[in-house]
Amino acid sequence: MILKKWEELPAELRTDAVRPYYDSLKKKQFSLVCKRLFDIVASATMLLILLPVFLLLAIAIKLDSPGPVFYRQVRVTRYGKQFRIFKFRSMVAN
Model's pTM, two decimal places? Predict the structure, then answer.
């Protein structure tokens, strides 16, 4: 996790109330990087373990109704950064 510089934060976050939390995170940057690495390794492991369940779910969705297995959407973060999500489709297409 790369912490933005104080000056690069949006103006509404650069307040006296936020500054102590920012300074606390700045001191913990190494542990935040370690946590991020753990999160990536743990989620990759869980993805491999759950892969058979995901395959069965994808087959069930495909047999149940026509259309794609996944629902895709572009979402926007608080800071305006866009990212794409993929979810198993739970409703009929269209």
Answer: 0.60
Tens digits of per-residue pLDDT, 22-79?
999 889 989 988 999 999 999 999 999 999 999 999 999 999 888 899 999 999 998 8
CA distance 55 to 4: 39
Neighbour tally for 13: CB within 10 Å:
15
Half-sphere CA count of 76, side-chain side, radius 13 A: 3
Alpha helices in the chain (DSSP H): 19-27, 29-64
Which regions of the chain does DSSP assign to beta strands (E)? 70-76, 82-88
